[in-house]
Design brief:
About 45% of the residues lie in helices and about 15% in strands. A 5-stranded parallel sheet has the order 4-3-1-2-9, sandwiched between helices. Strands 6-5-7-8-10 form a 5-stranded parallel sheet, with helices on both faces. It is of the alpha/beta class and about 260 residues long. The protein folds into 2 domains: about 150 residues, Rossmann fold (3-Layer(aba) Sandwich); about 110 residues, Rossmann fold (3-Layer(aba) Sandwich), CATH 3.40.50.1860. The longest helix is centred in the N-terminal third of the chain and has 17 residues.
């Protein structure tokens, strides 16, 4: 069995790493849409076209299940993908629901970091409206962060200055949880832990996404543990250097054994 993972760039590698940890005996195909990364600052119509074209290419490679490891792509195309294909398709959304549940007793707010396009979508507004009865969720667009990540910009001073500038107008004593609503953002978790007050928890949706993948494989009766743990990388631009970058990102995640506070 081959499980497909799709993202605009290297962000979804964080989800792939979690899947490899929980499903080590499957085979994987990871596709990055390097011709069009980042999605978060583009139009909804363009992103729809990009995602459908890339997933069509993945389907031709013979995947048995698909994880759309991108919050922006999920918010825009997940329904159309499920209508078009009969295989299990798992999307991602910012971990707002578990964050609200975890944070309710504290009386503090939840701050969601996400791309501008994710925050503009009706799917996101519906999610917040459904779970945020007490009005504790606030959203912060970080349009530059995917660019930084794709450039492998992880310098602690540069990125620390960036986050401090974005958070300058926020009284962080009022917040209990920060939600990383884009898979690219997870690479900056350790920098954020150094920057944010110690009482603030950081959550993402990776563990919950992989749990849903496992449940869907069972629901569809797809036999697991028939692969070898092989990972094959592809990108729409067919750049050898980007293929190497994705492999490096996966290796670093596995070596670091990063286990952020993830939620479903």
């Amino acid at each position: 069995m081959t499980i497909g993972f799709f993202d605009s760039g290297i962000g979804g590698v964080t989800v792939l790493a979690e899947s490899l940890r929980r499903l080590p005996a499957e085979d994987y195909l990871y596709m990055a849409d390097t011709l069009h990364v980042p999605y978060g600052t583009k139009s909804k119509e363009d992103v729809q076209i990009y995602v459908l074209e890339a997933v069509d290419r993945m389907i031709r490679q013979g995947i048995d299940a698909l994880v759309v490891a991108c919050n922006t792509a999920t918010s825009i195309t997940i329904n159309e993908l499920r209508e078009r294909y009969s295989l299990p398709i798992i999307g991602m959304e910012p971990a707002v629901k578990p964050a609200v549940e975890m944070n309710r007793a504290t009386g503090k707010k939840v701050l969601v970091f996400a791309t501008p396009l994710t925050l503009q979508q009706p799917r996101y507004y519906a999610l917040v409206s459904r779970v945020d009865e007490e009005g504790i969720v606030e959203s912060l667009p970080l349009p530059e962060l995917v660019h930084y990540c794709e450039a492998l910009q992880f310098d602690r001073k540069i990125m620390g200055d960036y986050f401090r500038s974005k958070l300058a107008s926020y009284d962080l004593n009022n917040y209990g949880i920060v939600v990383l609503g884009c898979t690219h953002y997870i690479y900056y978790e350790e920098i954020l832990r150094e920057l944010l007050p110690p009482h603030i928890q950081i959550v993402d949706g990776n563990v919950g996404t992989v749990r849903r993948l496992m449940a869907q494989l069972t629901r569809y009766g797809i036999t697991a543990d028939k692969g070898s743990g092989r990972v094959r990388f592809m990108c729409t631009g067919d750049e050898p250097e980007y293929l190497a970058k994705m492999q490096t990102a996966l290796t670093l995640l596995q070596e670091a054994a990063v286990t952020p506070v993830s939620s479903e």
